[in-house]
Amino acid sequence: MEGNMGTSYKLSSDANEMDRLATQHRMWCLLIGGLYPRQLQTSIEDLLLDESSSILDVGCGSGIWATEMAMRFPRSAVIGFDLTEQHYTGNLPNFKFIQGDLAHGLPQSFKGRFSVAHCRCVAQHVSDPQALVKEIAGCLKPGGILILSDGDWVAFDANKDLLVPFRWDPNVDEVTQANNEQGRSWYAGWLEMFERLTRSPKYQPVDTLVRESGQFSGIQYSRYFSPINWPGNDIEHGEEIGRIMNRNMREFFENGVTPMLNSGLSQKMIDIWRTKFEEAMDLHLYNVWHVTSARKNGHSAKL
Ligand SMILES: C[S@@+](CC[C@H](N)C(=O)[O-])C[C@H]1O[C@@H](n2cnc3c(N)ncnc32)[C@H](O)[C@@H]1O
């Protein structure tokens, strides 16, 4: 393995968090048009028609994507890899979970074995995201497809203009800060703070990571806006996505209280932040999500 991917995962992996990720998975499917981006349908299905095909989900969490892929492609062998073992439902003969820490790389037995590799909302949590992408590339067959996706820590208003984040200043008392927000967004500020707490300083956008790995061709990138607690403007499935995001972000806030306390934020400030956060849920905002797909070099097929 090149570089050290380290174990610095700051979010919890308990049942509540897995529940939240399952709901978020539903939103991903609505956003991108299924388990993988609509535009990859033919390429993925062509690859997975082969009986010897296999699928890898790196940082699979609850395994919801991997097990749904196992149901969709019963002739493919699907492996979910994660730090934490969960309770996988379905008892599917073609799904297997392997526990491991990316800090030690992916198992040697994975090398050159997979037709499709998926890694969603994981790269920013390892200390060397570029090393992770190279490691996954090493597990794909030539011509195999990588889908690398991630959320982002910025927020947009109803016109999709980027919001300026409110910045918590540890040297100013809580009430003064709360009264001196100068029109900046608390929601964007909370996202930015969370980014500082949880994202690897070496992180780069998913398409950059894939391009700079030098291992892929046919790189495609899409970004998707998800409205929070409103249907958005011209967003397909906006109503359901808006409902899911309302629940998702509230749960995410609560799951993030411990990391916030650990970072030195006072309980009083967290309570103020929670009130402002609640208000933001009614402001017609968007979050954004990124998906990159590409084909491992060494094969002539196009995406
Ligand atoms: C935000 S969750 C995403 C889960 C899943 N991919 C999804 O989209 O629902 C990030 C996952 O990465 C896993 N993870 C983080 N660091 C890891 C590491 N060093 N080795 C293996 N898994 C790791 C976590 O255990 C967690 O399940």
UniProtKB/TrEMBL annotation:
Molecular function (Gene Ontology), one example: methyltransferase activity
InterPro entries per the UniProt record, alphabetical: SAM-dependent_MTases_sf
Matching CDD domains: AdoMet_MTases
Pfam families in the record: Methyltransf_23
This protein's UniProt keywords: Methyltransferase, Transferase
Name of protein: S-adenosyl-L-methionine-dependent methyltransferase
Keyword NAD annotated: no
Coiled coil segments of this chain: none
GO biological process, one term: methylation
SUPFAM superfamilies to which the protein is assigned, alphabetical: S-adenosyl-L-methionine-dependent methyltransferases
